[in-house]
Structures are given as structure tokens and as C-alpha cells.
Design goal:
This protein is an all-alpha fold. The protein has 23 helices and no strands. Helix 9 packs across helix 19. The mean pLDDT is 79.
């Protein structure tokens, strides 16, 4: 299996699309294992896409597109502006708060970052912000969606690793809020450094904040309802995806009345395009997962690492370094599907809670999309803002520091991550 993974990395580096690179490498693995029936290749490809829990992914992607076209996102932008307009780098602060309020409903931190660049980027440059600064804040603030529910990455991690998605969702709140505060601090420091002034001198009044919250109440209720319904068994994570679609349709048609037939068709077409790639990756990753189990890769990797270190913190740093490098070259979805079945048994051997590890892992692999040399989100946001990757990276340093502080706190203080899920679900267990 190690040979197949190496082959995958080589053809990916040579420019083959991710989905096809996974398929070709998986096919190569079966060629080197003549004792495995070829029917398993087809069975594994199909079974991965037919998981009931995986239904949540296309539903949440569709719900995210609907929210962007039904007035929910625009009202969240307005609320974020009311809350942060008095701060330095005010529109940058809006981007951070918007990422926190939105959660991962689009299914991709790259998609969220691109959406925020398109919505907020032109206004930023109009007010005199450097394009590279605008790209940096929109790109890196999109990382918050890795942990704030309903995060697609956490759904994938929980499904593949057989870990409670409800616990993962609740565990993401505190790290997500912490990252929000640290990124707002980084934005304020950076804006002061480059001379970007607030939009208005004084904070908004309580009446203004109350009016903005009231206008956005339907958007703010969404993540709260999801958590409550999942925790009390009203719906499964897959059913919560269907609820998200119904909720967005109901709000768009009957509350905000901004969703018409033409917009609905646009959302549908856009969602199908997003899902076609995601489904191919899901299907072909099933072959990889089978190879990982067949060759007992987790056990092999555990033996190697045990020989290197028996310290859980050193182990975590080695794994996170590896995931950061992977994130520079691959989408979060691919890394999660390939690495989770390898790493979850490994970290459990060291006594690390898989919920704790899942939050850290999703933060790191999502960060990889925003780091040079080939981070997908980094290139996407730089392209939208019309600036070089080097310029965006230069303006991103304060945000990388904020992410590093968040990771260090989560690594060395696991209860920061586990306090809420242990409180709600009880301590221990997965």
C-alpha cells in the first residue's frame, strides 16, 4: 500500500486531477495484489458512496448554495458589520465573524474563502485595503469553518473513523470561537500596522445590534437547531442535512422571499457540479481504504513510530507536520478519507481521544489549503483579488500565528476541546 500511496503522490504532483490520481493509484494497488478478487474494487467504490451518513454531504452543499442565494448570507454579513464596524480592519473583521457564523455549510473551506472574497473583496479594495491583505484575511478566516458545525470535514472524519459526529460537532465550538477571537486580534493588529482605519468611531448601540440580530435570527438559529436535534435524537446527521435544505428553502421562499425558480435552478446546477467531483473522490477513496486495511498499514505505522518515540506530543507533532504537507497538495476531503483509517487506530494506541484528535486534524489539513507553495485556497483567493501568491502570503503571517496558537492550546490542553462533548454526552467513549 505504501507503494500505491507513493505512486499517487507522484502522479498528483505531475498534474493529474485528484479524483483520477486516486483511481489510478488504487487500480495499481490491485494489480500488485493478484490474490484479491477484482469484484472487491467495484464493491468498495460503490459502497463508499452509499453510506447513509455520507448523504449529509450533498445535502449540506446544496443547503450552503441556497443560503448564499436566499438572503441568509447577506444578512449575516450585515450583522457582522454591525458587530465589528468600529474595529480596525472592519471589513476584515466582518470576514472573520462571517466565517464563524456560517460554519462549514458549503462543504469546503476553499469554497467559503472564495465566496467571502467575491462578496467582501471588491468593497475592501474600494476602501483602500491592499488586494493581498484582502485575499489573506478572506483565505485564512475560511479556516474557522473546519471546526464550527456543520463542518463537512468533521462529518467525513466521524463517518470513516466511526466516531460520534454529535461529539465532534460540539467539540468544535470552543476551538472555533477561540480561533475567531485570535484571528480578529490578528486582523486588528495587521490593520493598525498597515494604517487601515475603522468604518465608524464608536461601537454600534445595543438597539442597532439587537435589530441586526433580529433580522438575522433565522440564520443564527440554524446551527443551534442542528446541534439540539442531533443531541436529543430527533434526527441523525444525514437527516440534519435534509433539514438544512428544507430550512434554507423555507426561509428563502416564505421569510425573506428572495428565492425564485431561476435562482433555485442556479443553486441546483452549482451543487451538482460541486458534488460530481466530491462523489468521484469518495468512490475511489474506498479502494484506498481497503488497501490500508488489507496491508495492515496502521499497525505497521504504529510499530515504526513506537520505535521513534513513545511521547504522545512528539507523535502529534510528527503527524501534524505530515498532514500540513499533505494539505499543500491535496483537498481536505481527500486527506480525510485516506488518512483517517490509518491515523485513528494509531492515536488510540497512544491514548489520544479521537474526538480531540479530529478537531486538531481538521484544523491542520484545512490550513494546508492556505499555505504555500501550492495551497488551493491560497491560489483561489489570490486569483480572485488579482494579486500574487507571494503578496497574499506576506500579509498572512499574523493569521498563521493565530492558527499556531490555537493548535498549541488544543494540543496541550485537551479539555479545551473535550469539555463540552463530555458535559453533553458524558465522559469517555467514541
Amino acid at each position: 500500500m505504501l507503494g500505491a500511496i507513493g505512486f499517487f503522490l507522484v502522479i498528483l504532483f505531475l498534474g493529474m486531477p485528484v479524483a483520477f490520481a486516486i483511481a489510478v493509484a488504487g487500480f495499481a494497488f490491485f494489480l500488485t495484489r493478484p490474490e484479491i478478487p477484482w469484484t472487491i474494487l467495484v464493491q468498495r467504490s460503490l459502497s463508499t458512496t452509499q453510506s447513509f451518513t455520507m448523504l449529509a454531504i450533498p445535502l449540506f452543499i446544496f443547503a450552503g448554495n441556497l443560503m448564499n442565494h436566499t438572503g441568509i448570507t447577506s444578512r449575516l454579513v450585515k450583522l457582522a458589520n454591525v458587530l465589528t464596524g468600529h474595529m480596525y480592519g472592519s471589513i476584515g473583521q466582518v470576514s472573520v465573524v462571517l466565517s464563524t457564523l456560517m460554519g462549514g455549510v458549503s462543504g469546503s473551506a476553499v469554497a467559503d474563502a472564495a465566496m467571502e472574497c467575491r462578496i467582501l473583496g471588491p468593497e475592501m479594495t474600494k476602501r483602500g485595503y491592499a488586494p493581498g491583505w484582502a485575499a489573506a484575511v478572506n483565505c485564512l478566516s475560511g479556516l474557522i469553518v473546519a471546526t464550527i458545525p456543520p463542518s463537512m470535514g468533521l462529518i467525513l472524519y466521524g463517518t470513516v473513523g466511526e466516531i460520534s459526529i454529535g461529539r465532534l460537532f460540539i467539540a468544535g465550538f470552543v476551538p472555533g470561537a477561540m480561533m475567531c477571537v485570535l484571528m480578529m486580534t490578528a486582523t486588528s493588529w495587521s490593520a493598525r500596522h498597515y494604517g487601515y482605519q475603522p468604518d465608524h468611531e464608536k461601537p454600534s448601540s445595543l438597539s442597532q445590534i439587537g435589530a441586526a440580530c433580529l433580522e438575522s435570527i433565522w440564520a443564527l438559529l440554524f446551527p443551534v437547531l442542528l446541534i439540539v436535534f442531533i443531541r436529543f435524537g430527533v434526527m441523525t446527521p444525514s437527516e440534519s442535512g435534509a433539514f438544512a435544505v428544507f430550512y434554507a428553502l423555507f426561509v428563502g421562499v416564505f421569510i425573506y422571499k428572495e428565492l425564485n425558480w431561476k435562482t433555485f435552478v442556479q443553486c441546483l446546477v452549482s451543487s451538482v457540479k460541486d458534488l460530481s467531483v466530491t462523489t468521484m473522490i469518495l468512490a475511489f477513496s474506498g479502494i484506498f481504504s481497503y488497501g490500508v486495511v488489507f496491508d495492515q498499514l496502521p499497525a505497521t505505522l504504529t510499530n515504526i513510530l513506537v520505535a521513534v518515540t513513545d511521547n504522545r506530543y512528539i507523535l502529534l507533532f510528527l503527524i501534524l507536520l505530515m498532514l500540513t504537507v499533505f494539505g499543500m497538495f491535496m483537498e481536505t476531503t481527500v486527506i480525510t478519507l485516506i488518512c483517517t483509517p490509518i491515523l485513528v487506530p494509531l492515536i488510540q494506541q497512544y491514548g489520544i481521544d479521537p474526538v480531540h484528535f479530529g478537531i486538531i486534524m481538521m484544523t491542520v489539513v484545512t490550513m494546508g489549503c492556505s499555505t504555500p507553495p501550492v495551497g488551493v485556497a491560497l491560489y483561489t483567493c489570490s486569483n480572485i483579488m488579482g494579486c500574487s501568491v507571494e503578496e497574499t502570503t506576506r500579509y498572512s503571517m499574523a493569521y498563521y500565528a493565530a492558527i499556531l496558537v490555537t493548535l498549541l492550546v488544543c494540543i496541550f490542553l485537551p479539555q479545551v476541546v473535550l469539555f463540552l462533548p463530555n458535559l453533553v454526552y458524558g465522559g469517555g467513549g467514541i
